[in-house]
């Protein structure tokens, strides 16, 4: 069990100490389940995801949501440590700091240290970092978000309201040539040369779409990139096939179908397979009731699970401690003062 009566940094250290790489979340889910079981609420487990409802007779329900998995440890550590008012360790900002805030709220509410204006539901889900199935989809499909009026996903946003996110379209593009010995290339056709033509088309498209944009005064930009190029051949053979992976991050003002149309107009649909797709999202209307004045808003220059929640009719934003710039890095960390200040801001909304 995690001692959630402790101060926030100590809760975070205990969470970091439990390695929870995507696909290996059972241990941390077991620990979280045992941690929340004694508290006055309704606890539900779905595979390696958890839901905890606090029903306090209020009119509206707010959801606080966080993923329990992290990227692989790499050169980071599960032995969290403090230095220069920072706390370091894998998941420190992405997003075990958010989980620590959620647990602290459960603890503080149970002893009357905070009072609620809303019923609360807490979602601790697996599989966010991929490529395994995303646990939030399981919770949505099985009806665990019924009666939620508004949702905060506590991804790191530097305590800003991230009210929108980009969509993502990933495709695999194959081009074909004719193999030949590299000493006698005139008898073949190099597929790699053809792939470079596709690469140039992607660079041209990125130059066209990549200028700064604003939506309700919020800055963002679209981008498209070749993220992998493979030829699968020996060093002395002209490649007969080349495979490019292409990722297009598109505007909240553009639908997924429009994004496909634009990308395929550039590179062609032939021998092109969609490997991943996720719509963009913008929750710019009807949410002011749940938000504070004076906190900056942004469109996240990435895709997040708010897209799935908004598509399901649940107004949702990202709002969390820490900076995405420090996520997944060997020195992943969070500023402890900002961490504490975020907790106070979060309480205001509840």
Automatic annotation (TrEMBL):
UniProt-listed Enzyme Commission number(s): 3.5.1.18
Keyword Hydrolase assigned: yes
Signal peptide from the UniProt entry: none
Cofactor: Zn(2+)
MF GO annotations: acetylornithine deacetylase activity; metal ion binding; succinyl-diaminopimelate desuccinylase activity
Keywords noted in UniProt: Cobalt, Hydrolase, Metal-binding, Zinc
Domain Peptidase M20 dimerisation: 167-267
One protein family per Pfam: M20_dimer
Xref: InterPro entries: ArgE/DapE_CS, Bact_exopeptidase_dim_dom, Peptidase_M20, Peptidase_M20_dimer, Peptidase_M20A
GO biological processes: L-arginine biosynthetic process
Protein name: Succinyl-diaminopimelate desuccinylase
Lineage of producing organism: Bacteria, Pseudomonadati, Spirochaetota, Spirochaetia, Spirochaetales
